[in-house]
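Backbones bend. To wit:
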Amino acid sequence: MKRSTAEIEAIRKACRVTDATFKHILPHLVENVTEKAIVKKINKYIRRHSDGLAFKTIAAFGENSAEIHHQFPTERKLKKGDIIMLDFGTKINGLCSDMTRTLFFGKASTEQKRMYDTVLQAQQKAIEQLNNLAIEQSVIKIRALDIDITARGYILSKGYPAFPHGLGHGIGRRVHMAPLLSPKSKAYLKSGMVFSVEPGIYIQDFGGVRIEDLILLNGNKVEILTKSPKKLIWL
């Protein structure tokens, strides 16, 4: 679904609050803090600076980050060597944002770094493909499944399992809307659409990595609306 100018501006503002929330929460990610405590702090900041939560905030530590949607935070305490997955969003004037970042508490292991780099490269390749196709077309009409296949194929080529969800989804007054980016999608991505690009790797009993940004197709230009850093971060 194409978004109006007013809707896009509201989503932009929601994304700015999301980025500010990420910056706010980083100093609170300290040893022995619990998932529940971090979710509470994220939610408090979002409610203070926006119209509310776009969806249930996710904070997953260590092995819990292998859960695709760890929607029920626990008393699990943060410890050295943990993966940290944060997935949250805000609302402005009824329009939603959505972003996921994955961090590491203490120095990341070789395998953790490899997982992270693979997911980041998969996302970058998908966004580059979007950008190239948008530039090539006078009327933007990109098959959503082609973008999913690019990211999914790259992760598979590195020996990891395919992520068990679509690469992305549209966003608006609900956090999950058309178009769906998946291998079976029949949708086309067109100018004026806002959607997520969120590849991931999930290894049971080890942990998971997901990186998610919101993308606006704006004419022949791809704009990333969520601006939080994606370099590998050790806390």
Observations:
- The longest strand covers residues 83-88.
- The chain has one domain: 5-224.
- DSSP finds four helices and 14 strands in the chain.
- Residues 5-224 form a domain with the Creatine Amidinohydrolase fold (CATH 3.90.230.10).
